[in-house]
Amino acid sequence: MKFKTGEALLAQCEKEQISISEAMIRRELSISENTREQIQERMARAWSIMKDAVEEGRSGKLHSIGGLIGGESRKMLDWANAHRGASSSIISHASAYALGVLEVNASMGLIVAAPTAGSSGVIPAVFMALQEEMGYTDDQMTMALFNAGAVGYLIMQNATVAGAEGGCQAEIGSAAAMASSAVVELLGGTPGQCLDAASDVLSCMLGLVCDPIAGLVEVPCQKRNAAGAANALVCAQMIMAGIPAKVPFDEMVTAMYRVGRSIPYELRETALGGVAATPTACALCDQIFCNQSKERK
Ligand code: SF4
Fold first, then answer.
1. Which residue's CA is the closest to the ligand 1 atom numbered 2?
2. Residue nearest to atom 1 of ligand 1 (CA)
3. For atom 6 of ligand 1, which residue has the closest CA?
4. For a tag site, which of 5, 170, 202, 253 has the least CB within 10 Å?
5. pTM for the whole thing?
6. How far is the CA of 185 from the centre of ligand 1 (A)?
């Protein structure tokens, strides 16, 4: 099975009466010599690493290489558990888990780049919060990862998932689109609704620039992962409520890519603009590199 656009994927799903996750497994089978069991085992391993990263992230014991983040996931969970808060339990848990996975990434721990290290918090966070809330099995979560993988694959085929090329909209935007599509499938939505959710997420994050302080994947990356997780859940919910996307997924991917190519280089991972160029960020940057050179002496 081969598909390179959302439209082709939906046509295959319709023709064979299958889900996006099943279509993705069949694609893997058609291009590799692996068995279905081997393909599923590999994805189960990815899910297991994601769950471990959420656990490690919420321990509250991590410190990032640059020293800009560490302990935020634990703080947010403690606060959310003690107060009614401003968002539902699932959104507040998902955002806390996303903060934590970025702590793991920034302290050189093991994460799954889904689709990149900088956006590695979104999918584990959304999946874990949903599994806890809804009681899905690990097999169901593993299957949903194939759906997320199909969306990521389509974005890579037709645009980019690299912040240096397309800005943060391409990195965290893609991760959130992948997560949202998978959530819709888990909730019983159709393949068309899955891609509608992915389209809506991309439209909500369109234009987001890549501007990490000191060039480190810490700030604003960590909080953007949390916001991306919330965005994924909100868009999935809107689709399930019967509010369809106005612009098809393929067109939105093209729009995202065009916007990405028109973002100036200062706002594409060079740390020369946006948040990274604020006076406070520049002072933090000096502090980080000054401390590191002292440590080396
Ligand atoms: S700001 Fe840049 S480095 Fe940070 S998560 Fe977004 S794309 Fe990645």
1. 210
2. 210
3. 168
4. 5
5. 0.97
6. 27
CA of 47 to the centre of ligand 1 (A): 23
Rounded to the nearest angstrom, the distance between the alpha carbon of 210 and the centre of ligand 1 is: 5
Which pLDDT score, from 0 to 100, does residue 297 have? 65
DSSP string covering 19-61, please? -HHHHHHHHHHHHSS--HHHHHHHHHHHHHHHHHHHHHHTTS-
Question: What is the 197 CA–ligand 1 centroid distance (Å)?
Answer: 22
> DSSP string of 13-25?
HHHHT--HHHHHH
CA 241–ligand 1 middle distance (angstroms): 31
Longest Cα–Cα distance of the chain, Å, equals 65
Mean pLDDT, contiguous 10-residue spans, the chain (297 residues): 94 98 98 97 98 97 96 96 84 97 98 98 98 97 98 98 98 98 98 98 98 98 98 98 98 98 97 98 94 70
Residue 146 burial by Cβ neighbours in a 10 Å radius (0-12, 13-18, 19+): buried
- Identify whether the C-beta of residue 256 lies closer than 8 Å to the C-beta of residue 162: no
Q: In whole angstroms, give the CA distance from residue 289 to residue 153.
A: 37
Residues at CB less than 6 angstroms from ligand 1: 118-119, 163, 168, 171-172, 210-212, 217, 220-221, 224, 269
What b/e sequence results for 185-196 when a residue is b if at least 16 CB atoms lie within 10 Å of its CB, and e otherwise? bbbebbbbbbbb
Q: Could you give the angle at the alpha carbon of 49 between the alpha carbons of 48 and 50, nearest 5°?
A: 90
- Give the span between the Cα atoms of 272 and 293, in whole angstroms: 21
Report how far residue 174's alpha carbon sits from residue 156's, in angstroms, rounded to the nearest whole number. Answer: 9
Q: How far apart are CA 7 and CA 13, in angstroms?
A: 10
CB 35 within 8 A of CB 45: no
